[in-house]
Write a structure and sequence with these properties.
By secondary structure, the chain is mainly α. The protein contains seven helices and two strands. Strand 1 and strand 2 form a beta hairpin. The radius of gyration is 24 Å and the shape is rod-shaped. The N and C termini lie far apart (56 Å).
Length: 193
């Protein structure tokens, strides 16, 4: 009776795809080194690369925001914001210019990197969706000397938080897509990028 049950179970399971073998729980696993394995390995490497690139952009943005908001550079920050006075004081030399350069670099780098990342394959770990980019772009473009210091600091923190949140969602997406595969890496951002 047991043999007949096994025979019926084997007859009912789907046939193996080319390049695959039976794995635990009757799953189909690519044969190591075979064409399916190499194809999945290449796709995984692309996803880890995109994830690493996005992780780097998120970390660079966060570090720039922390540098701009550093309490030791408060004078430089305040000279760049606060209304009409900032339109003139933002050109003062020294710490004010350092902060202004950090702000301009942050804005231009985020715009360039974000547009570049958005051109990646949609839905892949580490890509920015078409819905997310306009939100980020608006946050970045909203930073202006006419903002109060308090609102400018809050806007910069929102940018850093949004990038870090997107980084975490990308990691979750990676784990969901690759978690049960032989290619999965516990920490895909370590050594990626």
């Amino acid at each position: 009776f047991e043999i007949m049950r096994e025979s019926i179970a084997q007859r009912d399971r789907p046939p193996l795809q080319k390049g695959y073998m039976r794995g635990p729980g009757d799953t189909q696993t690519p044969v190591p080194g075979g064409p399916a394995w190499r194809e999945l390995s290449s796709k995984h490497a692309d996803d880890v690369g995109r994830l690493g690139a996005f992780g780097e952009v998120a970390d660079v943005a966060t570090a720039a925001v922390e540098r701009i908001l550093d309490p030791r550079k408060k004078g430089g920050f305040e000279s760049n914001f606060g209304g009409y006075n900032a339109l003139a004081s933002q050109y003062l030399p020294g710490q004010t210019q350092d902060t202004r350069n950090d702000l301009e670099n942050l804005k231009s780098n985020l715009k360039a990197q974000g547009a570049s990342l958005m051109r990646g394959v949609g839905g892949a770990p580490g890509s920015i969706t078409e819905r997310e980019w306009p939100i980020l772009e608006k946050l970045i473009e909203s930073i202006s000397p006419l903002m109060s210091e308090k609102e400018a600091a809050a806007a910069l923190r929102r940018i850093a938080q949004r990038f870090q949140g997107m980084k975490q969602r990308s990691l979750s997406s990676y784990k969901q897509e690759w978690g049960d595969s032989p290619f999965y890496k516990e920490n895909p951002l370590q050594g990626a990028g």
